[in-house]
Amino acid sequence: MTESTTNNSVPKKLPPPSFVKLAMRNMVQKGKQSLFHFGLTAIGFLLFILLVAWVGRPTLPH
Q1: Model-level pTM?
Q2: pLDDT classification of 7: cutoffs 50, 70, 90
Q3: Mind giving me the DSSP string for 9-57?
Q4: What angle do CA 30, 31, 34 make, to 5 degrees?
Q5: What's the number of CA atoms in the CB half-sphere (13 Å) around residue 45?
Q6: Torsion of Cα atoms, 37 then 40 then 45 then 47, to 10°
Q7: 4 by DSSP, 3-state: which?
């Protein structure tokens, strides 16, 4: 057996793509939907922060 035949019998395994690459590829394929969901998430986060600030506001005496 030569070295070239042993190299051909062992397939080279490529590492699976990272989650970031998969997420970016998915975002490119579904651009409008991804932007819509990002917008909803951003608005929801801002509303949550405002709610926490309103509930935790200090009470000042008159």
Answers
A1: 0.54
A2: low
A3: HSPPPPPPPPHHHHHHHHHHHTHHHHHHHHHHHHHHHHHHHHHHHHHTP
A4: 80
A5: 6
A6: -170
A7: helix
